[in-house]
Amino acid sequence: MSSPAPASSATTNGTSSPPPPPTTNGTTHAPAASPPPPAAPRPPSGLTTATLITLISGIVIGGLVVLIGVGLLVIFCRRKKRRELYGLTNVYGSKDDPSGPLQHWQQDAHQPTNNTDPMLPKHAPLLSIESKPQLSPLHIPASPPPMGILGTEKPLPPPSPGISLGFSKSAFTYEELAIATDGFSNINLLGQGGFGYVHKGVLPNGREVAIKHLKAGSGQGEREFQAEVEIISRVHHKHLVSLVGYCTTGAQRMLVYEFVPNGTLQHHLHGMGRPTMNWATRIKIALGSAKGLAYLHEDCHPKIIHRDIKAANILLDHNFEAKVADFGLAKFASDTDTHVSTRVMGTFGYLAPEYALSGKLTDKSDVFSFGVVLLELITGRRPIDKTENESIVDWVSFSLLCQ
User: Fold this and answer.
1) Where is the chain membrane-spanning (predicted)?
2) How far is CA 203 from the centre of its chain?
């Protein structure tokens, strides 16, 4: 027979059981039940984990697309602003002719002189033989063609008394140069630009030369002409075009250069029907022109800033040795000066942006222009793409951004 259960519950593992619930009027009340824990949130119907991941990925990708779109819009606005800036500050160039009227002043003498020649700007075509009769050597004109930059006829002043050009180059008379060019005939016309005309000539000793003379009304005064002559007479380098002589007869201002027979880099890169240059030739041209530019910046004291480095001003001989030409805009710069403040001049597509904005000229302005020439050599593109109204610098920058 088993004994009755004790009044107090037995302990299990040293823990006493809770006391029985109190009674009221002999009725036992059970303890109040605790509220159930909140149910775990369930995903909305139809949205699985994979769907949520896809949704989040779509939001992230959409944000990236919007960010890229904003970036492209900013780049487009900056590029448009830069184009408008060049259009306003470029003294020579225009949007219709981005290569600018400061075109090459030498080209292949055997090329036909017609309006389709790719070397000359469309707004300044070569004079056709039919439009003006060819002049014989016996008929020496009183002056070169009288067309000025703005269509005005403004003769240059005579040489100032007591002012000497101060260098040992040959001095030619106007009659001597007229005979050398067959009366400045159109057949010998090599090119023309904002500065003046250039004719091929043959001196009495048989030497071929390129004779460059100022247009009437071109804005080149006595001091400017003498400054250019002084700069050109100081440079002597294999990769720079050398000056043979000059002419200051009356109001005439002419410079006589060595003749470089193989045209310009611009002609070989962009001329119609020209064969594609191989890489060895391109590298040779780049190195030669770089050496000529380095001579101006590092070996001349004071240094010379060319201010118009472009493919049209790099001439090539039959061995494709490069010669930097056309010092009409060159400036001296002291080694102690940080910059030279001057009017913004140059050719559209080659101007350094900081120079175009401030007018503060340094040798780095030439380096930027030479960089554009290198891009032309590498890509074969023109400095300004007329079809897309885009510069080669912007095109390369955008291409790198999209890598």
Assistant:
1) 52-76
2) 38
